[in-house]
Amino acid sequence: MLKSPTFDVQFKGIHSLILPDKEIRPFLESGHKRVKVMASFEGKSVEFYGALQKRKTEYRLMFGKEHQKFLGVFPYDFISLKLSEDRSKYGVEMPEELDAVLESDIDAHEIFEGFTDGKKRSIIYMIARYKTSQTRIDKSIILCENLNRGIRNPKELLKS
């Protein structure tokens, strides 16, 4: 499995990190534009999935507000990163509740699998944002019912 050494980057901008070419080149050359990220700052760490996005001549990694808040980082702080190859099916961790509900509803599962990778990730994020397992189950059931009704608009997918 492809892994980078731990390296430091300066937090610039509001939601992104500029990545050193030396550290990401092996991922790009191997065709991996999505990575698993371990970010550390002052004894705290967070793990998440992200995309290596090219902006003009540099590659960036989106670094969300919730991760910034958890680590306590501010613009111009230096944080440590370690990247590894993303071996997940969807490029993000699938909530157990959504996976179980989709497995129990074959038609909704087929519809879900027919979406683009980006839309699948968006749906997964929509379910994963709920804190309690029961709410994730309830929303997953509503999602499947709406998929089976022909609803495809992301704004309508979780409405009962």
Task: Write a brief structural summary.
The protein is an alpha+beta fold and 160 residues long.
Question: Can you walk through the features of this model?
Answer:
Helices cover 38% and strands 26% of the residues. By secondary structure, the chain is an alpha+beta fold. It has two domains: 7-85, Elongation Factor Tu (Ef-tu), domain 3, CATH 2.40.30; 96-148. Strands 4-3-7-1-2-6-5 form a seven-stranded antiparallel β-sheet. The radius of gyration is 18 Å and the shape is elongated.
User: Portion of residues in helices?
Assistant: 25-40%
Could you please say which CATH topology of the largest domain applies here?
Elongation Factor Tu (Ef-tu), domain 3
Question: If classified by CATH, what would the architecture of the largest domain be?
Answer: Beta Barrel
Distinct helical segment count: 6
Strand content: 25-35%
Reading off the top of the CATH hierarchy, the class of the largest domain is best stated as: Mainly Beta
| CATH homologous superfamily descriptor of the largest domain | AF2212/PG0164-like
How many domain regions?
A: 2
User: pLDDT average, as an integer?
Assistant: 93
So what's the oligomer here?
single chain
User: Largest beta sheet: what is the strand line-up?
Assistant: 4-3-7-1-2-6-5
How big is the Rg? 18 Å
**Largest pleated sheet:** 7 strands, antiparallel
Distance between the termini: 42 Å
Number of strands: 7
